[in-house]
């Protein structure tokens, strides 16, 4: 390992601060884009080059972790074990690799999409804030403690606000107020106070393997309060009723929707919840606290299950494709939370697996939605019948993404459902086993009801209009094709993880 890093250190500037350097790469790209904004070709190239460089460095970080480098890097020390720090651990390595890889495809897609749809305006600010948001997400992935997570969670909200309001219309400004208001309110009123409670009780906010909590019956009520405040304080996870901002944000350009739903924002919310369960509370501790008091976390599977079914029912009524995908995201995010809330090592691993699968599938669906808008200008489902004959590759990719939302083979989310049955039945709770089984069956039926008609009508219904008039740019076709292939590959390679 030392030889490998020594070989790479000169050309790639690998130092002991490699985590900080990696997370700052997108920010550096944003600065360059800001100063070269008047030359769109240069800005586009910088955006794509930054994403490739980030993925390269992230792979090296993963290599360091694989060879046992689990040390914590203190960036700012406030004394008394309170600091801003970065650390490599399993969930962070997986999440950072996911972000950096999908950012390459999103950058390629975004530059082509903006050129095709916003060629008459300078969109360098769009690419600049896009890059900043990725940098914030990388810091969240590498965060070594809850304070660091909170700081960059807030910065992510701030950096994505200009993207949500990019059009500058009244509708987008209202959406921005919902976005900023809900996320800022939930984090400052619920998330932030918990930091004080935890630090006052344990004198640390660090993420550790078994959690900073130690089972003590005197802490049961304290645990119940902190757990509930953290779960709902992380509004980006979109657990009802903290979900209203997400469908509103669909007024943003499609690459922003892909960023919000697949790469950065909502995935950061789900990721933080997984990390808090694993490294702040600890799964074994939560199991024992729940046995003492159901409110110490036993309610979470039921809240997630309600969100899954309710959001799917709302999605059934949607006529606009992006709105349908938005409510589908609310539902699918709660799958991740549901899996994590079983409070076992297996369920946590399945939750991380589901997060990865959903990211590839959902970004595929939003890429396709953007391609359809670029080609036809249509955003309503009933106006794109027959489009599969003029966009076969794109709509096949959509089919793969839709099957992942439904959770049937050859979609990798099928394995997530299969494995969670094993985890929940091993939990020993009959009521929870029955509830999870009910939720998975009903949600699968509901997902089928709103995705299968789109697929059928795209390939077999009479065309709503002549879709062959305008050619789809290749860089709007390639990214969804790649993500769909990755989704297909995960289905056959899931045993590498489990």
Give your account of this protein's structure.
A two-stranded antiparallel ribbon has the order 1-2. The relative contact order is 0.09. It is mainly alpha-helical and 498 residues long. The longest helix has 33 residues, at 170-202. The chain has 19 helices and two strands. The model is unreliable at 3-13 (pLDDT under 50).
Q: Count of helices? A: 19
Mean pLDDT: 85
Rg, Å, rounded? 22 Å
Secondary structure tally: strands: 2
Distance between the termini: 25 Å
How much of the sequence lies in strands comes to under 5%
What oligomeric arrangement do these chains adopt? single chain
Quick gist of this model?
The chain is mostly helical and 498 residues long. It has helices at 2-12, 18-35, 40-66, 90-117, 124-142, 146-164, 170-202, 220-233, 245-248, 254-263, 265-281, 283-292, 300-316, 321-340, 345-376, 392-406, 413-426, 430-460, 474-493, and strands spanning 72-77, 83-87.
Task: Give the secondary structure arrangement, pairings included.
Elements lengths: L1 H11 L5 H18 L4 H27 L5 E6 L5 E5 L2 H28 L6 H19 L3 H19 L5 H33 L17 H14 L11 H4 L5 H10 L1 H17 L1 H10 L7 H17 L4 H20 L4 H32 L15 H15 L6 H14 L3 H31 L13 H20 L5
Antiparallel strand pairs: 1-2
Helix pairs in contact: 2-3, 2-5, 3-4, 3-5, 4-5, 4-10, 4-15, 4-19, 5-6, 6-7, 6-11, 7-8, 10-11, 10-15, 11-14, 11-15, 13-14, 13-18, 14-15, 15-16, 15-17, 15-19, 16-18, 16-19, 17-18
Any descriptors?
498 residues; mainly alpha; two-stranded antiparallel ribbon; disordered N terminus
